[in-house]
Amino acid sequence: MTQMNSSTGTDRFDVVVVGGGVLGTSVAARLAATSASVCVLEAASDVCEGASKGNAGTACSYYGPPGTLETELINRSYPHWEELCGRLGVAYRRGGAIMLALDDAEAETLGHTLAELDEAGVRGEMKTPAEVAQLEPLANMATVAGLWMPDEGVIDPMALTVAYANLAVTNGAQLRLNAPVTTIRRLDDGSMELATPQGTVRGRYVVNAAGVRAGDVSELAGGEPLRSWPRKGQYAVLDRRFAEQLQRTVFCTHSPTTKGINVVPTTHGSALLGPTAQDLEDAGDTSTDRDQVEALIESARRLVPSITRDVVIKTFAANRPASEEPHRLRFDQTVANLLHVTNRSAGVSVSPAAGAYALDLLRDAGLDAEDRPDAVRALPSTPRLRTATDLNTLFAQDPLYAQVVCACESVSAAEINRALTSPVPACSLDGVRKRTGAMYGRCQGSLCAAGISFLTALHTNTGPRDVKQTAHGTVGQ
Amino acid sequence: MTARAADAAYVVVGAGPSGLGCASELLHAGPVTVIDRIPVTGGTAGWENPLIKDLTRDVVSRGAHFALGQTAVRYDGATLTVASPTGFQPVATRHLVFAGGLRPGTPADLHIDGYRPAGVVPATVAEHLLRTGVQLWTHAVILGNGPWARPVAELCRKLGTRVTVVADLADVPDWSQWADKRIDATARVRVAGRDRISGVELTTADGTTSLTSCDALVLAADPRPNRNVVGALTEDDPNVLFHQPTQPTSPRLRYDAAARATRSWLQTIGGPS
Ligand SMILES: Cc1cc2nc3c(=O)[nH]c(=O)nc-3n(C[C@H](O)[C@H](O)[C@H](O)COP(=O)(O)OP(=O)(O)OC[C@H]3O[C@@H](n4cnc5c(N)ncnc54)[C@H](O)[C@@H]3O)c2cc1C
């Protein structure tokens, strides 16, 4: 049903999604499996450049409080991660989490959290210090109690976002990169016209998935003032030589104001310490500072005392879209066909159900979107050298698997080439990192970034100077 | 020389001056296989270096087996998995010597604050890129005086890029031959610029901050051992020797130091096997 209106040079779609983060791409992937036509407009030169690339990748079973739409969407999502990630070729592990109480006051808080879990129908169980030590031998021995949450998991949030985007494009969605929406015009027929440097598109419905900039998009469309502000989170990444011993996610007891610093083993075999929480004015501020990083390592050591500064291989920061309304999946109160889809702190965890829920809302509002039986549901899988056990089979599939490019993280030229040629291909070194984990290890690309830069230049038809290092800047000046 | 990696009593990973020194000594104790990612010996000293040619010839004549252009990937204490253009090969060995060289400190190692924009480049990467002969930057700040600092500075200047070195160069009297400007190492370094680096803010121990504008920051400080064979990352297995010293720096002295270290390691593990 993609309608092209060549006379005006404007492409028309049933739905235009603004923002290529985990929420925008999830909605687009769901819509693309229907008869509705969909276009995603992303300001950056790649998908997954906002909060979706800077988070811990916890795929929660519970975030709280009970009774909210967010909790409901998490409930609808977490039982299905294995099936979804199997289809999308995304790393996921349901390793469970243990929330530690280090004194009696914290133990009491844990009791409240357990009651909330029960109310939300999520599995949770109090554990004695001895049981805690068995579940996670690296956890602080001086715990008073632990709350065990077996359905907590971890996911590769960047691979997930890219996979949603790949699936959407495979099923016919159009993706325009480098396409920040600069104006939105409401037309007489009720549809909206969105102008970007990559041309103008028209949509009968607009999905506002612009993350921390959702307020700007709403304003452009003449919608409600959505007050939101960036809340910076800094993280420290731990070397796999330490992190691979971690069995579980270790949460601190929530305080009324923050969920605090946690220790999260990643699907890559590293671990993340964080996040800090710092309210900002400037959404582009993703700087890190040493004092905050030192402080967060100290906090993390309350949970896992054997963490030391020398296993930190990287620090980074990202901004959550903080707001009085931390989760938003509803139509605008003034512009009837503007659907807001934003989430502050659990966007990854709600994303599968959020796509489906957004489709339901759009259908209820009159969108004609039949599920297409021929829609592609699974992406071609890319086995990972790092986790492969049968290396000979891998080699038989593609001899480039034996060309190890990133040795720290065991990433081969086969994986990198696929990242550079997928439906939504990497166009920068950082794009390769997001898709493959190359350069993510302890040497941070010291030994492989030159090689990856050559491969990227080859596929993007650029050279050593103008090959992109990040989504925003080139290697040379 | 790029034959299939052979099982051996001793396997050396890294064919730079250190690896060759280790191999030379190990040959007194038993069969030796030397593996390197790049298809030549010499490592950072370069394969054309006459000393490297001599040392290579020597160990080859004494029976060392070379598997070049091959990458050691995993080690489980008995088998080293090696990736090569013909596939993955298990190489049985009870003794692994890792001489994989050095890499520069990363932003996290160096506690660098601020942003992660384009234009912040490890010195090892800068060296590769500059060798393509393209002027990549107009003003590069080189942080630190690791072994890559001078070669990178020289390549930069040859291509017309101005170079400022931030390092303690008190015992490097000839720095002005390869850099335009020097600034003493500071307590803190912060990267400014969001999409692309615009400068580095340097803060001294007494709290004074100054901004040096630049369009590249080359990380050349704090050389560290490069470790990347899964299963052989930490020094807890007595049958694995890591030999990756930061000093000495000359190839000849590195070779000698490696031979000495290998000799004493052989004694601790009970001599020839
Ligand atoms: C520190 C931190 C830790 C977190 N930890 C977790 C966690 O463990 N688990 C979890 O589930 N969630 C976590 N979250 C939350 C999660 O990351 C977010 O909820 C989620 O990424 C939001 O996705 P999004 O698609 O709405 O936003 P984003 O990923 O920010 O995407 C928005 C996109 O919109 C684009 N855009 C903006 N304006 C325009 C415009 N005018 N035109 C075109 N495009 C535009 C942006 O370029 C961006 O790509 C964390 C977040 C942070 C910051």
TrEMBL record, chain A:
Cross-referenced SUPFAM superfamilies: FAD-linked reductases, C-terminal domain, FAD/NAD(P)-binding domain
Gene3D superfamilies assigned: BFD-like [2Fe-2S]-binding domain, D-Amino Acid Oxidase, subunit A, domain 2, FAD/NAD(P)-binding domain
InterPro entries to which the protein is assigned, alphabetical: BFD-like_2Fe2S-bd_dom, BFD-like_2Fe2S-bd_dom_sf, FAD-dep_OxRdtase, FAD/NAD-bd_sf, G3P_Oxidase/Oxidoreductase
Domain annotation BFD-like [2Fe-2S]-binding: ranges: 404-452
Domain FAD dependent oxidoreductase: start-end pairs: 14-360
PANTHER family: GLYCEROL 3-PHOSPHATE OXIDASE, GLYCEROL-3-PHOSPHATE DEHYDROGENASE
Protein name: FAD-dependent oxidoreductase
Annotated source species: Nocardioides mangrovicus
